[in-house]
Specification:
Length: 317
């Protein structure tokens, strides 16, 4: 039995060798990425048993992602390689301050073959928690939202918890499409991991207390509001914690920080930690991720986080 199950896309990411507008980048390095992929990888490095449900192309890129994730300790038994569908790609543009843009090439995605009829229901329900994001929903707003509805209903029927990161990518769908689709999933959610801008899109408010009031209307009693360089706020069964930011050594690439935060939050949540400890742990992971170039290269192992927190001595001499 896995601790966590997640459903979503995996992509090849091409990272530029130089910073600035992508039109002037001549050399790229092949890596792997994707919101759910990053989350799964982050959970595995923290020691959680994580199962990933996905589809990849039966091509060299798909095989590379499959082998990479299996080597990182992610259960890929529910990941299939399918003929006739190219593995999705994205190209990154990194700016001087570490922020960036992403350019997607996801048409005819292999995940089109992953539907509620082809979903392995027995596999999805063999976990403590199901984690979903708005990225996978946006790849195909009709089919994938339908699939996620089916998955969250199965999870709840089998006593699982459900966590959601809205992770809204407006390059993939409109604000109205995102709001309509994600709002229909909220009644099944136990843990909401959101940014302020995403909460504003969903609820029309930016004040933390107002966000929480909207969450209560959906019976969501665990909420993390990610604020980037300003830290995070958390709510859990009436408790409210404001967590100070953890300053990174240097911000070089902000992609993947939210996914790392999510993995850290879910890890601590499943361990039964206090909300304050969970947020400090998750914030620390986010700061470690932005200090390293790449979508997931900075996702730390558990002992590395504990060293950063001063709870364990470094093995380096």
């Amino acid at each position: 039995m896995n601790d966590v199950i997640t459903i979503g896309d995996g992509m090849i990411t091409f990272d530029p060798a130089s910073k600035g507008p992508m039109r002037y980048a001549h050399t790229f390095e092949r890596k792997v990425g994707g919101a759910e992929l990053n989350f799964a990888l982050g959970c595995a490095r923290l020691g959680l048993n994580i199962g990933w449900v996905s589809r990849l192309g039966a091509d060299e890129f798909g095989r590379y992602i499959h082998n990479f994730m299996r080597g990182e300790g992610v259960d890929v038994s529910a990941v299939q390689l399918v003929e006739g569908y190219p593995t999705s790609l994205n190209f990154k543009e990194i700016k001087g301050d570490g922020s960036g843009n992403t350019f997607y090439y996801r048409a005819n995605s292999p995940t089109l073959t992953l539907t509620k009829d082809t979903l392995d229901e027995a596999y999805v329900t063999r976990g403590k928690l199901l984690h979903i994001t708005g990225v996978f929903a946006a790849v195909d707003a009709n089919k994938n939202v339908d699939l996620l509805h089916h998955a969250v209903k199965l999870a709840k029927q089998n006593g699982m918890l459900v966590s959601l990161d809205p992770n809204i990518r407006l390059k993939l769908w409109t604000k109205d499409e995102a709001r309509e689709a994600l709002s229909t999933l909220l009644p099944y959610v136990d843990v909401l991991l959101t940014g302020v801008d995403e909460a504003e899109l969903l609820f029309g408010v930016t004040d933390s207390q107002a966000i929480m009031e909207h969450c209560r209307s959906y019976n969501i009693d665990t909420v993390a509001i990610k604020k980037g360089a300003d830290g995070a706020e958390g709510y859990h069964k009436g408790e409210h914690v404001q967590a100070q930011p953890v300053r990174p050594r240097k911000v070089v690439d902000t992609v993947g920080a939210g996914d790392g935060f999510d993995a850290g939050f879910i890890h601590g949540f499943l361990q039964g930690w206090s909300l304050e400890k969970i947020l400090q742990f998750a914030n620390t992971i986010g700061s470690m991720v932005v200090s390293v170039e790449g979508d997931n290269e900075g996702l730390p192992y558990l002992h590395e986080v504990l060293v950063q927190l001063g709870e364990k001595e470094s093995v380096e001499r």
